[in-house]
Amino acid sequence: MKLLQLTIATAQEAEEALTEYLTNELLAQGVEVRRRSDFIAVPNRSHGETIDLASVAALPEDIEVTGYFNATEDAHKLQLLVQAKLAELASYGLQTGTRQITQQVVADTDWSESWKQYYHVVHVTRNLTIVPKWLDYTPVLPDEQTIILDPGLSFGTGTHITTQLALLLIEKALRARQRVLDVGTGSGILSIAAEKLGADQVIATDIDEQAMTAAKENIGLNNSSKIALVQSDLLNNVSGQFDLIVANILTEVLLPLTEQLAEHLAATGRVIMSGIDQDQLPKLEEALRLHGFSITIRVQQERWVALLIERQQD
């Protein structure tokens, strides 16, 4: 079988939204992401892998997102739709790179296995390590927790800055035996991390049915028994209160979420928000203030910001 390969040169800030668009809206049969930073960072990782950059074919300027479609699809139409989506993301203040799109027809065997070479073990924090499901990895530290993921599911691999900032704050904020709510779970990575770090119960929500399927598979890969999946638009189908609420989604989605937090956050509970572009931060800060919340910790890497939030003190 032949496949249409559509490769988009873009920027990391657009990665998650573009990947989700290709998968859920354009119904790509597969999505591959190549990041320049992955190749540069590998020699510094403690598991000892090295890569000769000169040997990497067509190293991307920032990132390349490639979608694979049935060869009978209208390539020109797909390119127009992708360009429109990138323009939309740019209107939100996100960097979208060169937006150059190339296409070719390939045999499905050209990509179905070869993309795996671009995924490696990622040491996110001292205690959290992400491992692609096909790799064997032995923890280095006695308290190191491994999160096994299937990156081929295209709902978050743990390599994006926003996910790593959220994991960093979960590790700092979570206490043993707490109840956690993960809004927009995607791959389920934040929920899995919360259970491994001691959460007593985790509710993971997403509006997308395919995300629910991806999260379910990853939860199974990690033998997680304390995570319940709930398909929901934000918190509309969620009941009860939680000690920690986590959301790694775009600011445009975080804004309406601020209106629902008070009902579902325990009196001494805390909230983690990630996925925030620095230019979008002021309006989110204002929305949080209006709904009775204050920011206690702010962390930033490049343009991306994550927040630890509490109720305002009387």
Automatic annotation (TrEMBL):
Protein's job: Methylates ribosomal protein L11.
Gene Ontology molecular-function annotations: protein-lysine N-methyltransferase activity
Reaction catalysis annotation: L-lysyl-[protein] + 3 S-adenosyl-L-methionine = N(6),N(6),N(6)-trimethyl-L-lysyl-[protein] + 3 S-adenosyl-L-homocysteine + 3 H(+)
UniProt-listed Gene3D superfamilies: Vaccinia Virus protein VP39
Native source species: Amylolactobacillus amylotrophicus DSM 20534
Primary gene name: prmA
Name of the protein described by the UniProt record: Ribosomal protein L11 methyltransferase
Family listed: Belongs to the methyltransferase superfamily. PrmA family.
Domain of life: Bacteria
Enzyme class: transferase
EC number: 2.1.1.-
InterPro entries (alphabetical): Ribosomal_L11_MeTrfase_PrmA, Ribosomal_PrmA_MeTrfase, SAM-dependent_MTases_sf
